[in-house]
Amino acid sequence: MADVAVIGGGAAGAAAFGELLARFDGGTVHWIVGQHAPGRGVAYATSDDQHLLNVRAAAMGVFQEHAEDFLQHASRQLGQVKGTDFLPRRLFGDFIQAQVGARIDTARRAGRSFRIHPESAREIVSRGKDGYAVRVGADRWLEVGHVVLAVGALAQRPLRTVSTTALASGAYELDPWRLDRHPQAPRRVVVIGTGLTAVDTLLSAAAKWPHAELIAVSRHGLLPFNHAALPLAPYARQEALNQALLASDCPAAMFRLVRRALDDAGDTDWRSIIDGMRPINATLWQRLTHARRRQFLRHARWVWEAARHRMAPATGEAIYQLHEEGRLQVLAARVLDVDGSAPLQVTLRERATQLVSALEADLVIQATGLDTAVAYGAHDLLSQLLRDGLATADPLQLGVLAQPDGQLTHADGRVQHGLYAIGSLLRGNLWECTAMPEIRAAAHRLAVHLSQASSVARESASELP
Ligand SMILES: Cc1cc2nc3c(=O)[nH]c(=O)nc-3n(C[C@H](O)[C@H](O)[C@H](O)COP(=O)(O)OP(=O)(O)OC[C@H]3O[C@@H](n4cnc5c(N)ncnc54)[C@H](O)[C@@H]3O)c2cc1C
């Protein structure tokens, strides 16, 4: 028998655990969830109902074979709900917990073996052909055949431009989901970042401090684009475009192809063309050389992210209102320095003019998005895996190096058999792997693979004389 340990109590861990519960009978399935409520992770732990999903309800399942169940769950909770709606993320967190709960009940009735550990995984030691030993909490060891790392992105590191004085002042917030740590109303809040996390932060700050002036700053000052209110008609020539993109291995040429398609698309909405590329995005990424990936990250990522990861229409409308009311300014500038304390001094270089200016802020919130630079992060388990050679950092700091099936690459270049990752840690491998549609497909594939491998191992063992 070879047990499996899933490490990480977010949505990816929940998907992997639930998929394994449904089909893995080769041993015990351990779910090591850390200290937070299991299943919600960073994205679905919010209690602020202004924080909406950025994927339509119909596409937000947690398990691959029941991808539409969220819609039924939401309808039971809220009454009439349409598959095209963008619903509160909190509701999806409730749904994940209910779905996993149902799988646990079924597994119990079927006599499947599983355990949930409300602690963190601290260390993983290779036992060669016998799998791994995983240290849970202070000193409990689990002996397992396979490990699935579903630990999400890293906790934010302060930007290099933030002084220790500013960090110690209590007025620089590294966790955009912890505005509750600031009971006193600030007059001016600066949010660093203009992606989806920054948008949610701005909405929460606006509601919590109705008189605060809000400033969001990023190098290009580009907020995410809005989703269309209703699903869009597909682009008639998407298949031809995707074929042409797959024949290219250069981001600049790919952008030219997309640009041409946009120009020729007539009445087709540009968002439809971007969405139509989703099935091939991972393949396009995998075809790029290291230098070309770097080129994409440096020159095109900012606009790609804004176009690809869009806001729910209601979120876009709320941000637009703040702007119209004069409460929100969005700046295209580089943050050169954050220093001082109460108020902080934020020094900026404006993109258009290159002029340097300083502004005061009672609170600065860092909302710069996913950090997967494992070589620099302070994640104890990942640091240990890197130190011991069981994992290797992606050279562009997009997580860890891995095989196409998610097994990690050892420091010596070999496959680290039986040690898998899913979700954000695989961005270097897949680029597009952080949203639920990709996560649930990966969790399903992995559970099927591990179940089949375990059946084969048992059959071979039973044939031995
Ligand atoms: C603000 C936000 C909004 C999003 N909105 C959407 C959306 O609308 N639709 C969509 O499809 N996707 C959305 N996403 C993408 C999102 O990343 C995924 O949907 C999903 O939540 C990722 O889950 P995860 O489990 O990989 O990561 P996380 O949510 O980061 O969960 C990882 C968990 O692992 C735990 N952990 C870490 N180390 C250990 C350890 N050593 N031992 C035990 N536990 C550990 C962490 O504490 C954490 O709880 C959003 C992401 C964010 C950040």
From TrEMBL:
Gene3D superfamilies: FAD/NAD(P)-binding domain
Pfam families recorded: NAD_binding_9 (PF13454)
Ranges of residues in domain FAD-dependent urate hydroxylase HpyO/Asp monooxygenase CreE-like FAD/NAD(P)-binding: 5-153
Record protein name field: NAD(P)/FAD-binding protein YdhS
Species for this entry: Dyella japonica
